[in-house]
Design a protein that fits this description.
Helix content is 22%, strand content 37%. It has 2 helices and 6 strands; from the N terminus they run H-E-E-E-E-E-E-H. Strand 4 and strand 5 form a beta hairpin.
Length: 89
């Protein structure tokens, strides 16, 4: 799991969106990625607009389509870390 921690703070452009890893969730494991440009309006419990917050996404470590790391994780990790993370699969 130490190799996963190295992802925190990494940035990359994925499908034209600038993203940064902000958290690792051990269940799964999954990676929480935050869009660093732009924001969306967060609603309160009554559905009223409350504040602007960055959009976040939770990405699984393993791709559901192929037997490899998720493509977003590979982009964020780079070649060296991708090679080390593959050993966790």
């Amino acid at each position: 799991m130490l190799a996963l921690r190295e992802l925190i703070g990494r940035e990359a452009v994925v499908d034209g969106v600038h993203c940064q890893v902000i958290e690792i969730l051990e269940s799964g494991p999954r990676v929480v990625v935050c869009e660093t440009v732009g924001s969306h309006i967060q609603s309160n419990q009554f559905g009223d607009p409350q504040r602007r917050v960055p959009r976040t996404h939770t990405v699984p470590l393993k791709s559901q389509i192929e037997k490899d790391l998720h493509p977003v994780i590979r982009t964020l990790a780079g070649e060296d870390l991708t090679h080390r993370l593959r050993s966790l699969l």
